[in-house]
Amino acid sequence: MQNTDDILGVNRLPNETTKKIMENKLATDTGQVTLLSEICLKVNNAKDKSKKLRVLRENDSPALRMVLKGAFDPKIKWELPLEGNAEIPYSKNDAPIGTEHTILMQEARNLFRFTEGGDTTITQNKREIMFIQMLEGLCAEEAEFLINVVKQRLNKVYKGLTANLVKDAFHWDDNFMQKQPSYPV
Questions:
Q1: I need a surface site. Which of 11, 132, 137, 143 has the fewest CB within 10 A?
Q2: At residue 33, what are phi and psi to the nearest 5 degrees?
Q3: Does residue 177 lie within any of the structural domains?
């Protein structure tokens, strides 16, 4: 079985370092957790490309990179039946933001299970059940955001959030991988 990070193209840091980075990234001035959907809404509301880039770079995290790569990389195929405007049969979590059971920032590490070649040990039925359970654990905004990620239509929902912007923000090449520095010969 492949590593989650190998599939989504994000390198992991050692656990202690990751925990410290994530604590710093997740905590805002009010102590509230920044949702990935909120970050994309800030990108949507930013007036120009430089401000949009700044929002993405200031909120950079392995989870954000995984989710945005899943939304824009055409090589990532989601193994979920989400064609067109089909509704997903899940119960929206009515809990207020901040009190829900899970956040997408934490659940991003499990998204590989829903991609082609990600987790070959589970059946399609189990995969769909797990996805519905993930959606039901997220607040309504994050669940809708995740559905848009899987349908690869974030750029239609969030103005200015495009594959090119994401590649520029994280210094990715056209394969959504870290650009290799070029050295003079």
A1: 11
A2: -85, 135
A3: no
Give the C-alpha separation, 117 to 102, whole Å.
25
d(CA 86, CA 82): 6
Domains: count for the chain:
1
* 89 assigned to some structural domain: yes
Q: What is the pLDDT of residues 41-78, one digit of tens each?
A: 999 999 999 999 999 999 999 999 999 999 999 999 98
- Please list the alpha-helical segments (H only) found in the chain: 4-8, 15-26, 36-45, 49-58, 62-72, 104-107, 124-137, 140-150, 154-157, 163-170
Flag whether 178 is in a domain.
no
Q: How far apart are CA 154 and CA 53, in angstroms?
A: 16
DSSP 158-185: STT--HHHHHHHHTB-TTSSBPPPP---
**In a 3-state reduction of DSSP, which class is residue 94?**
coil
- CA distance linking residue 153 with residue 24, whole number of Å: 29
Low-confidence ranges of the chain (pLDDT < 70): 1-33, 83-86, 98, 100, 182-185
Structural domain span for residue 135: 4-170
How many other C-beta atoms can be found within 10 angstroms of the C-beta atom of residue 127? 18
Please state the pTM of the whole predicted model: 0.76
Three-state DSSP class for residue 90: coil
Residues recorded for the chain = 185
